[in-house]
Amino acid sequence: QVQLVESGGGLVQAGGSLRLSCVASGRTINSYTMGWFRQTPGKEREFVGAIRWIGGGLTYYADSVKGRFTISRDNAKNTVYLQMNSLKPEDTAVYYCASDARAYRNVVVKSVSEYNYWGQGTQVTVSS
Description:
Layout lengths: L2 E5 L2 E4 L4 E8 L8 E6 L6 E6 L7 E3 L7 E6 L4 E6 L8 E8 L14 E4 L3 E6 L1
Parallel strand pairs: 2-11
Antiparallel strand pairs: 1-3, 3-8, 4-5, 4-9, 5-6, 7-8, 9-10, 9-11
């Protein structure tokens, strides 16, 4: 049974920082690309970024967060992190981590449908 559990969300002022964690069990994260997504009410879940299984972990980001967010992983803890700096009110959303459905995929996928395990989500609220 694969489980992903996010934590670290909360309320922060614009310009502040938060670090989200995603602890995986039942699957080793260094065999799968791990993605972060976010969703606001009435909108589709959107890709935030991902870290690949390969090597040191190549990372990819949506343009809206590039330069502000950083994804990393700790293989020993089977945990993925999303460091969010310079937060903006428009970053307010429920954030989800997810695991690629295929191990050792050669490309990064950004579509929700390509990820088959999801965490429960953690709320991030950025006040202006």
